[in-house]
Amino acid sequence: MLPMFLVLAFIYTACQTIKGLVLEKERRLKEVLRVVGVQNGSMWFCWFIENIVLLTLPCALISLMVKAVKIMPCMFLRSLTRSLPLYMTLAWIFSVALIVKGVVQEKEARLKEIVRMMGLKSSIYWLSWAISSILPLAVSAGLLTIILKYGKVLRYSDPSVIFVFLLVFCMATVMQCFFISVFFSRANLAAACGGLIYFLLYLPHVLCYAWRDVMSFGAKIATSLLSCVAFGYGCENFARYEEQGIGIQWSNIRVSPQENDRYSFVVSIFMMLFDALFYWIMTWYIENVFPGQYGIPKPWYFPFTSSYWCGTQVGSDAEPDLLNELEDLNGYLEKSPSGIKPGVCIRNLVKVYKTGNKLAVDGLSLDFYQDHITSFLGHNGAGKTTTMSILTGLFAPTSGTAYINGYDIRTDMDTIRKHLGMCPQHNVLFNDMTVEEHIYFYARLKGRSSKEVKMEIDQMINDVGLPHKRKDLAKNLSGGMQRKLSVAIAFVGGSNVVILDEPTAGVDPYARRGIWELLLKYKKGRTIILSTHHMDEADILGDRIAIISHGRVCCCGSSLFLKKKYGRGYYLTVARANQDQVNTQQFPSIKEYDKFSVDEGICSDSISSLDPPDVADLSRLVRRHVPEAEFLEVVGQELVYVLPYTGARNGSFASLFKELDLEKSTLGITSYGISDTSLEEIFLKVAKDTGVDVESHDKRETLEQKPRSSSRISGIQTISSVLDSKDENTVKNEVKVRFSSRVEGK
Fold this sequence. Notes:
12% strand; single chain; 4 domains
């Protein structure tokens, strides 16, 4: 017995030592240390000393315990009473560490909250962990039962009784692992401490055994709240029956082998079941009140609230005036569209990270409307992902709140998640599941019936363009196809609020267009929030565009609204002929007229008031038709003028273009084009105005209109006909129709 005892005692330490050595090799830490000059012998010596020191303490404890137990060959069964609980505790200590680590690792990697965002209930999540943890332990319990019975250790006992007893202990152990896991947020620390805590909870049994003659029935019941102690009492009972040559049977489990002792074998089983229930209730309560870094905590009295068990009515906690009013930010917030209901309302949202005391979101108030795609833009660190994480329940707000379909994120997140779709920055896919299995799984999480899911699978697979990959595993898909599948998952199950965090990041242009097509097709009836760093994508897809900086709203409105607010006007780009081919006018060299070019970098505040002498005729022609026109810059053979927006409405552009067509050869012009302010220029202007490189602001700085950048790359459209005057809505609708027609034509 002693060799077996020692092997079980050191099995956890041996596994941890091997894991540490292999982990250093896997992460290349060993090779890095060798590169910087650490000798191979020195590394092995350090590992040797470290593990010898760690093993010294358990060796000392084992020596004391062996001395105290005084194991004698003639007292085998009596020693079994004392040693079997210890054997079982040490045998499962590594399994306990793995279970605790696995649960905490999913919490640390945010996987737990991500699957809950997609509609997975907490009860189902914990049930899956319970089943996957109990089954391996049940197998080991069955093998141990066979060894004890047919190894002539428990000759007289019924093996079915022993198996049920060990199986109940497995259940209590798994629940104890869940209870331990809620106190940790780092997987490696949880693995190291979990096994130690599990072993320490066994030690009271040593004292209980020593004081067994003086302990009352009530004291034994109280100490049995520790499952290892209750297990020890059960081992004492069937060991004494073995000494009597009777063994534990179904007929005597209600009777104690000792006279005047009410603590029978069945009491031990019931106490372990009670312990399992107690551990689970504590796990459930602590997880809800103290969820850790990720998740929204509930109040301590949440079990006594009707909203937790029955839910809340839509908008029961929302104030109508708060939902319908939004602060006008000095004219940089476009008025809300009439007749459209906001699906997401953010009100005075604040998030301060405890680590570093960093203010990530600073009093954010914003509305996202149904049937709209809202492009949510901002520089790195502006607070986009934090805001999205708060909306999905990954982070709890420091103050303020948000309402999604009328439900408050602070109290009704479980209800919100039934209709919430999320596509995070990284694909949340299972490598060994096919495309259709992913859609089936997530649709079922949202509560769809099997019949509805089958119809949705066919429709969604065709819409994302993956019918030929229907049976392929996710790991065999290309990056663009995986991203399409991740976006499709966000829409399954009837999600009417969809949050997409950079859905086209890292995909090729063709895959991007496929995702665009999917978003445009499924935006009806949904509130879609899209974050992206592609300005063309935000401009084409976004019905409204919101730009934030340092956690505050800088501007929000349609693309045309923002261009009118931030842009100076249209940009007329004139391409001149090669100087060697121009005979009507001798132009100075490039070096001479380059000195007139004003190029002060992106978002420059200056526009040249001096026209180069070689373009005086062209400037006079432009200003004859558009008096407010300003010369901006000369880049190579191209001249750029700023034309005000009023020219498009009063017809002055038409006469200007007609005369330019007639005077091309005289002025030495080969072509010309006109373009509007790009969204990228607006983004750069807002970023500069709000101070991207500044750590934080105590007060909001007033946004000022500043001139357009002199360094730009614009798309030039050749004009050969008169531009008709159009209002903003007409232009916007035509852009949408043109893109939709291009997509449908593929």
